[in-house]
Write a structure and sequence with these properties.
single chain, alpha/beta, 2-enoyl-CoA Hydratase, Chain A, domain 1, 20 helices, serine protease
């Protein structure tokens, strides 16, 4: 929209926005462009937002699997897929507000981009999906055309076509860094949060944010005299509580050293993702960012019934009353369940206390905003959990301003690593396959065991609920 507002020609082309299926999100993106073209055989799947949650409790019960899970508090629904067969009242309330908030953003964007009244956009959403000709008639697209016809039209406007990758290379800074240059450090934290180094997640689903890697990057930026501000880009559903606390501490130390820290939230900065962000001077989120989820859950599956049905027997030698506490072959004893709840209370109290400290509110206010509830960026901003709405560019501008740097001050990525170092294997003689298998089972406690055995996703104690599909 900023590019368009500058008077530049902006054209969006799509073969289809969902092949007579859901295509709300890609169409929303396209409406930021002045002209929207659609292939004649394409459709506009403008149908709204659907958040679907599946529950496997009854399926697990049929095979003799039971879950013992504690959570803090009612909105922390990450484990509900295993422990419930329906949405709780708090679960439905939270998802309904998230869906409403996302739709509000989509309606406002489409209304602005297509110059339609918001009420008309909502009517169109309820009438979708649309065939190509219907979309033109409704004002959702400008005309039907093939890709080559769109290219020809752009050329007729007097412009030439250039791949964005080639353009990006052409505008890279030509100057080399020089001694005494004042810079902004940019640190990316992406994926599930775990102890150790960043890399591919052992549980699948993309990268993992390693506390060692991120803490070292923040520490290096803090100690570098050339760095005057830090922008921490967070895109994470959460993960390990201890790993999140390691990163949180480094953010605190950077601020104590007098270096402004600005967090830029991506698609997700929830639970542990919010934990690592909450100590920053300024938190910037997109309106559609999913954040908050300030809470914790933990427990284990009990496979005793399943093992019995399969004719599998299990024996153990235990030295210590609770040495077999996390065995999936048996349920928690009353004493062990008390220890689980003590741990959950400790984690939640620490989380809420640090939210109160970082956001400048009292503990009761922080608790009301917490309770495990997930917020969109827009709602988090309204409740004071984030400071500004915007993207990475906005966060960099805030960091430069806070540090008293010029608007074009250099941005330097951290951690800084020599290209040859990237090729060096980890400093460990442990077999990689064995290490990954072990991490998969031990990464975040007993929940990972059943996930590994049943092929279900494993979660950390500070993790956003999964299996949401925005269509």
């Amino acid at each position: 929209m900023r590019f368009r507002a500058a008077g530049k020609l902006t054209v969006a082309f799509a073969e289809t926005f969902g092949e007579f299926g859901a295509g709300t999100v890609p169409y929303y993106l396209a409406t930021a462009f002045e002209k929207v073209y659609l292939q004649p055989s394409g459709d506009v799947g403008l149908t709204g937002v659907s958040l679907e949650q599946r529950f496997v409790k009854n399926a697990l019960a049929k095979v003799g699997v039971d879950y013992q899970i504690g959570q803090r508090h009612e909105y922390k629904t990450a484990a509900n897929t295993f422990t419930h067969d329906h949405m709780t009242e708090a679960h439905r309330e939270s998802l309904t507000r998230i869906a409403d908030s996302v739709v509000e953003q989509i309606v406002a964007g489409i209304a602005e981009g297509r110059r339609l009244a918001p009420e008309r956009v909502r009517e169109l959403i309820d009438g979708g999906p649309f065939l190509g000709a219907e979309a033109v008639h409704a004002g959702l697209v400008d005309r039907l055309a093939y890709r080559d016809e769109v290219y020809d039209e752009v050329r007729d406007e007097g412009d030439h076509l250039l791949f964005i990758g080639r353009y990006a290379k052409g505008v890279l800074p030509k100057k080399l860094p020089h001694p005494g240059e004042r810079v902004v450090a940019l640190i990316h934290g992406t994926g599930q949060i775990r102890l150790g180094r960043s890399g591919r997640s052992p549980l699948g689903g993309g990268g993992a944010m390693g506390s060692d890697t991120i803490a070292a990057a923040i520490r290096a930026a803090r100690r570098d005299d050339a760095v005057k501000a830090i922008v921490f880009r967070v895109d994470s559903p959460g993960g390990s509580y201890v790993a999140s606390d390691v990163v949180w501490r480094e953010v605190v130390l950077a601020r104590k050293a007098g270096k402004p820290v600005v967090v830029s939230m991506g698609d997700l900065a929830a639970s542990g993702g919010y934990f690592v962000a909450m100590a920053a001077d300024v938190i910037v989120a997109q309106p559609g960012t999913l954040t908050g989820s300030i809470g914790v859950f933990g427990g284990k599956p009990s496979l005793g019934g399943l093992l019995e049905r399969l004719g599998i027997t299990s024996e153990s030698v235990d030295v210590g009353a609770n040495s077999g506490m996390f065995s999936s072959s048996r349920a928690f004893s009353e004493q062990q369940w008390e220890r689980v709840n003590a741990w959950l209370d400790r984690v939640y109290d620490d989380f809420v206390g640090k939210v109160a400290q970082g956001r400048g509110v009292d503990r009761e206010q922080a608790h009301e905003l917490a309770r495990g509830r997930v917020w969109t960026g827009a709602d988090a901003h309204a409740h004071g959990l984030v400071d500004e709405l915007g993207g990475l560019e906005d966060a960099l501008a805030i960091a430069r301003d806070r540090a008293g740097l010029p608007k074009d001050a250099t941005v330097r990525a951290y951690p800084r690593m020599h290209p040859l170092e990237r090729l060096r294997p980890p400093e460990s003689s442990e077999d990689k396959a064995a290490a990954l298998a072990q991490v998969r089972l031990e990464a975040w406690g007993p929940l990972a065991h059943l996930a590994a055995e049943l092929g279900l996703p494993a979660h950390g104690p500070l993790m956003l609920p999964g299996w949401w599909t925005i269509r």
